[in-house]
Amino acid sequence: MKVCLIGYGKLGSSIAKGLRNAGVEVTVSTLPPTDEWAREDGFSVVPMRACAEGVDLIIVAVPPSAVPAVMKELRGVEVPITSTAALVKLGELKKYADKVYRVMPSVTVEVNSSPVLVAERGGGADSVVEAVWGKLGKVYWVNERVLDAALPVVGSGPAVHAEYFRSAVEALVASGVERSLAEELARESIIGTIKMLEKYDPYKLRSKVETPGGITVEMLLKLEEEGVFGKIAKVLGEKGRELSR
Ligand SMILES: NC(=O)C1=CN([C@@H]2O[C@H](COP(=O)(O)OP(=O)(O)OC[C@H]3O[C@@H](n4cnc5c(N)ncnc54)[C@H](OP(=O)(O)O)[C@@H]3O)[C@@H](O)[C@H]2O)C=CC1
Ligand SMILES: O=C(O)[C@@H]1CCC=N1
């Protein structure tokens, strides 16, 4: 399979590396200075129209403000297009191309382990979209409203989750644990928790950990009193509702 990737920034470079891991041939089109970064990473960089020739899929990973210019330059190209841009709706993309989809992944595509929301089925090239994006994680076909509502947890997710991880590490360091050990312990704990969440819902998991009158319930009640979890749900939920309007 061959892919043309437009944009080699934070997300684009992760997409390129994830696809390469999976044996997909990637050609890049981007502006300076990231054109040089793509070359240093071993990708071939060409002008946009040349990039779009003879490929199975085009992935547009440029800032939302640059999408109209890129779509205009791709006008008339028959190859299906997937846009990763937040904020640019399908209705806008369809003004420029027939076979076009919105995709919402996260940078964890770099390790081939991202939820990949795709809107919407029936865009004229579903199987090629599934085949390419399926190399980068688990594909979920959704309507556009769900893609936007889920963006705070899917697209932004790694940054939000990393902040919890960082806080846990700082807590351990403050308690006298060496940073390298603290990072390893926090990481292993999260990996184990994720595996348990595949078996149990979060309420059940919490009740398995809380010893009555013990340390866990004491800490969790304190965090709830501070509004920590409620605030996360409020901010992410408000943003999801705003985006999906
Ligand atoms: N970062 C993330 O985790 C996620 C991002 N997204 C979406 O993906 C898109 C990219 O985000 P991100 O990678 O963070 O952004 P960056 O700003 O890091 O990267 C944007 C890339 O697009 C290039 N570019 C800008 N304008 C053009 C143009 N006209 N033609 C060709 N290339 C161009 C930039 O080149 P240069 O910098 O060299 O000028 C850069 O390589 C955004 O729309 C964002 O909403 C979606 C999900 C997750
Ligand atoms: O922060 C952003 O706007 C983009 C979309 C999701 C992740 N990065």
From TrEMBL:
It holds the Pfam family P5CR_dimer. It is found in: Cytoplasm. It catalyses: L-proline + NADP(+) = (S)-1-pyrroline-5-carboxylate + NADPH + 2 H(+); L-proline + NAD(+) = (S)-1-pyrroline-5-carboxylate + NADH + 2 H(+). NADP(+) binds at I6, G7, Y8, G9, K10, L11, T30, A61, V62, P63, P64. Gene3D superfamilies: NAD(P)-binding Rossmann-like Domain, ProC C-terminal domain-like. The keyword Metal-binding does not apply. One of its GO terms (molecular function) is pyrroline-5-carboxylate reductase activity. Keywords: Amino-acid biosynthesis, Cytoplasm, NADP, Oxidoreductase, Proline biosynthesis. Its EC number is 1.5.1.2. Residues 144-236 form the Pyrroline-5-carboxylate reductase dimerisation domain. Pathway: Amino-acid biosynthesis; L-proline biosynthesis; L-proline from L-glutamate 5-semialdehyde: step 1/1. Residues 2-74 form the Pyrroline-5-carboxylate reductase catalytic N-terminal domain. GO terms for biological process: L-proline biosynthetic process. The keyword Ligase does not apply. Its main location: cytoplasm. HAMAP family: P5C_reductase. Catalyzes the reduction of 1-pyrroline-5-carboxylate (PCA) to L-proline. Belongs to the pyrroline-5-carboxylate reductase family. This is Pyrroline-5-carboxylate reductase. It comes from Ignicoccus hospitalis (strain KIN4/I / DSM 18386 / JCM 14125). The lineage of its organism: Archaea, Thermoproteota, Thermoprotei, Desulfurococcales, Desulfurococcaceae.
